[in-house]
Sequence to fold (652 residues):
Amino acid sequence: MSESTNIDSLLHEERQFPPSADFVTNAVGKPDLYTRASKDRLGFWADQARELLHWHTPFTQTLDWSGAPVARWFGDGALNVSYNCLDRHVEAGLGDRVALHFEGEPGDQKSITYAELTEAVKKAANVMASRGLRQGDRVIIYMPLIPEAVIAMLAVARLGAIHSVVFGGFSSESLRARIDDAQATMVVTADGGHRRGAVFPLKDAVDHAIADGASSVENVFVVKRGGNDVEWVAGRDLWWHEEMAGVSDEHTAEAFESENPLFILYTSGTTGKPKGILHTSGGYLTQAAFTHKNVFDLHPETDVYWCTADIGWITGHSYVVYGPLANGATQVIYEGTPDTPHPGRWWEIIEKYRVSIFYTAPTAIRTFMKLGREIPQKFDLSSLRLLGSVGEPINPEAWIWYREVIGSGITPIVDTWWQTETGAIMISALPGVTATKPGSAQVPLPGISIDVVDDAGVHVGPEAGGLLVVTEPWPSMLRGIWGDEERFKETYWSTFPNTYFAGDGAHLDADNDVWLLGRVDDVMNVSGHRLSTMEIESALVAHPMSAEAAVVGASDDTTGQAIVAFVILKSRFVGTETDAALEGQLRTWVGEQIGAIAKPRKVFIVAELPKTRSGKIMRRLLRDIAEGREVGDTTTLTDTTVIRTINTSVND
Ligand code: PRX
Fold:
């Protein structure tokens, strides 16, 4: 059987789940969205931008693509992103609606209305402005998932400045690299956050990251959350609550042009250095709001929405902060992990707040599947009416479990494909229109032009596989890589002319539905977190003991991929300690260099690495070993005995 026939039979799915008649009747997204968008794509997006957002200065031009691949959407319009997420809802009489139901890991809770959130953001903007923050300045946000993190993001946006949120699990080294690359002048952090019953320090990491005196950072705001002791640098460090206490709650949102930068979010690429993905205001907010409303079938008066992502990732930006708040939604944010203090914590939260729309990652679903349906079944999940999935392919088995056990066998599931770079959802079912199909992300959203092409850029057409591309500009597309125009063009726009190359393999089935097959480059997807093999290899070779390293993503039933490293020691360290001790040290080291999420699951200490005659590491063979398979074709290896040597050390 050829490889492609094999894939065809794997990616064949008979089961389809049309929406119920009731769902169709009340659905927000109707079939006419597709009709309208296919007739006049730009007109469709202009309608969305006008309908969903408030423009201080209305735009007359929808798209300017003359500077391709840097798009200008709604370029002569002006708006304030924070005003769109806050003030206008209060002005419309919705001030008493809850914006955030915050649930802390230790069990503390706070519900914050739109009026309260608006007031807090106005104060925070005044605080930041009084410390010199101006349009275009960069602010690093390094926080647990607490309301102050959302407030800080919206305050930065309100001033037309640029935030760069760094996930709290990243190490001080990673934080330093991001602060330096963005040349940030402010950091907002917390003393600590709660995680798995303990307090993890954040301020310490900031202190280390900016310790060398050459840092661009002038002020560090510290939110009191963990209650742990912190070091203090007078003049530089400021307690958030003290600053907020003495400041006015009056602040008028100024309008900024549609293309004013909104945020930089660092993500892993194929090289060792993370890239700062740049997003701007009007187009980004339009697509975040449009997709949040239509893909999640949002009825803001009655729904309670919960997306479990941290704000350190793009999902947290678009579907915790900007999409839901622009739409005036009521949502839950939860600080902790799903299993603290008990494995039913998420389901308990759904029951408590009567969550109706729930958005999470397949890794979480697969973990819960392993724990057994008895845990969610102890809770009342009847409020749920729509489920979403994001970050990695969801296998049909997990999809069905999600629908049956969490969704009472009736909720539609939307599997949403997108990326940090795309800014918002690109491929997904519309829940009141599409008959959903387990395992496939399905169809491009209205206004989005997707294709699957072969290496020559030719459409592959049904029942074939190829590369996923976006053929027309879209409003929330990245506008560049911070400080690296060349890398932006090279990474996304050089594979095919005028076409965005996503880096994912994809397959079209007989119905023309898209199945995502994972990355075609050296980017790994571990528990829905994006990491590059090169980044981890660079960290490993920076360790004094190691001479060379290779990293592969091995398939894993729960996390999608798992990081497996192969390391050659410098000769003077060979045999100095047991492999287990060395492995422990190297794993800890990677945790310190990048963050705990990048720690390899397994480090093999090996004598050699398999290389082609031209000196390239043959990752395919390493993946075979990491996944416990027979090693594949080794004919291009310089020295075929290497594999035997590796296999012996691996099996020792
Ligand atoms: O490989 C795809 C995978 O996640 C990558 C993007 O990662 P990141 O920028 O961190 O954004 C994740 C959250 C949007 C993609 O290139 N991916 C994302 N969603 C899906 C997916 N793979 C399959 N199915 C999805 N629904």
